[in-house]
Design goal:
Elements: E1 2-7, H1 11-22, E2 28-33, H2 36-45, E3 50-53, H3 62-69, E4 80-84, H4 89-97, E5 102-105, H5 110-119
Parallel strand pairs: 1-2, 1-3, 3-4, 4-5
Helix pairs in contact: 2-3
Length: 122
């Protein structure tokens, strides 16, 4: 069974993302993290197959988490999809240049979410 780490400081948003993902009917285990620092700890303590990542969080932002993860050889191919309200073109470009696999703008549109998740094989 695949493991998906949902990283967002809003519990409500984590639930929305997990419920949307569950509609894909891909069997997986969901882990939750309220910030990038906790997400790094979880990533280093167990195998993770996909990260769904918010940008704006306390302690360690999503973009800083992403940049740190991409410096680690063992995570260079880990799919990381930004799921964030940061919709400015320069944010999307920064995330993709920093190693994001894809980018979803909140509020989460189910059709777009399904398309983006379908493009990755994890």
């Amino acid at each position: 069974m695949k493991t998906v780490l949902v990283v967002d400081d809003s519990r409500i948003m984590r639930n929305i993302v997990m419920n949307t993902f569950k509609q894909l009917k891909i069997p997986c285990l969901f882990l939750e993290s309220p910030n990038g620092r906790d997400a790094l700890d979880q990533l280093q303590s167990r195998p993770i197959d996909l990260v769904l990542l918010d940008w704006n969080m306390p302690e360690l932002s999503g973009i800083d988490f992403l940049k740190e993860v991409r410096t680690m050889d063992q995570y260079k191919d880990l799919p990381v999809i930004m799921v964030t309200s940061e919709s400015a073109k320069y944010n999307v470009i920064e995330a993709l240049k920093s190693g994001a696999t894809d980018y979803i703008i909140k509020p989460v549109n189910e059709k777009v979410f399904f398309e983006k998740i379908s493009k990755i094989s994890f």
